[in-house]
């Protein structure tokens, strides 16, 4: 059948209209963003920020100044400072159900520490071996000299050892009975969170590991590496399996 010019033009306009709708659906909506709050106090770069579990309006920061901080989300007040590491704190994760935090560090270790906070911090508090006041100034970023000084925690609940290189990240597996670390020694370690013992060392990457992230509901984790690959590790069966993904150059 012969298609008239009018039909062709109509079809062309219809196609353009449909294409226009598709393109417009990918455009970002117009919005205005403003900074609501600044969280200051660290004396060096901040590598990671994480939020507390539901019902806990807190955030935690991991910094190259060898500390991790727990801060009130609304006020920006530092509620707790962890100074148990002797190297850069590279990552921080809250326990999913109780007041614990997990940090990874340049000192080749990961720490589990008590992240219970006091919302009514007094101006002065007596020091002890584990919970004390950090007397160093916290106004490196222009904070008020009269700001309340946060409690400082020095001793972890559990120290996770075994890596021979910088530990870049650590994350809880679902249920938080186990956790995984990623290190510059080219391995990831699966730990028993209660005992601190290594259950399994995950080998295979050809260069330093840069990150690890776990699935929120399944015993799965992904590690990334400078070898241009990332690996999916499956811990759901007694014999652990791994899938290798490559694409980056």
From TrEMBL:
It is found in: Cytoplasm; Nucleus. Residues 128-144 have a biased composition (Polar residues). WD repeats lie at residues 82-114, 160-201, 202-236. SUPFAM superfamilies: WD40 repeat-like. One of its GO terms (cellular component) is cytoplasm. Pfam families: WD40 (PF00400). Residues 126-152 are annotated as: Disordered. Keywords: Cytoplasm, Nucleus, WD repeat. InterPro entries: WD40/YVTN_repeat-like_dom_sf, WD40_repeat_dom_sf, WD40_rpt. The keyword Nucleus applies. This is WD repeat-containing protein 37. It comes from Bracon brevicornis.
């Amino acid at each position: 059948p012969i298609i008239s010019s009018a039909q062709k033009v109509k079809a062309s306009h219809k196609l353009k209209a449909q294409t226009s709708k598709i393109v417009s659906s990918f455009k970002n909506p117009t919005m205005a963003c403003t900074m609501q709050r600044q969280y200051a106090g660290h004396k060096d770069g901040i590598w990671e920020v994480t939020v507390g579990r539901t019902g806990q309006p807190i955030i935690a920061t991991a910094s190259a100044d060898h500390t991790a901080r727990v801060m009130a989300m609304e006020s920006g007040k530092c509620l707790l400072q962890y100074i148990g590491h002797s190297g850069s704190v590279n990552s921080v994760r809250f326990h999913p159900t109780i007041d614990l935090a997990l940090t990874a560090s340049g000192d080749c270790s990961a720490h589990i520490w008590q992240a219970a906070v006091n919302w009514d911090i007094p101006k002065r508090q007596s020091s002890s071996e584990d919970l004390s006041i950090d007397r160093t100034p916290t106004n490196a970023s222009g904070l008020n000299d009269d700001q309340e000084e946060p409690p400082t925690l020095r001793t972890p609940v559990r120290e996770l050892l075994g890596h021979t290189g910088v530990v870049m990240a650590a994350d809880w597996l679902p249920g938080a009975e186990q956790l995984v670390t990623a290190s510059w020694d080219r391995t990831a370690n699966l730990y028993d969170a209660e005992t601190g013992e290594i259950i399994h060392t995950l080998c295979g990457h050809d260069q330093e590991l840069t990150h690890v992230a776990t699935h929120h509901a399944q015993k799965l984790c992904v590690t990334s590496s400078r070898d241009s690959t990332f690996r999916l590790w499956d811990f759901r069966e007694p014999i652990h399996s791994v899938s290798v993904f490559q694409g980056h150059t």
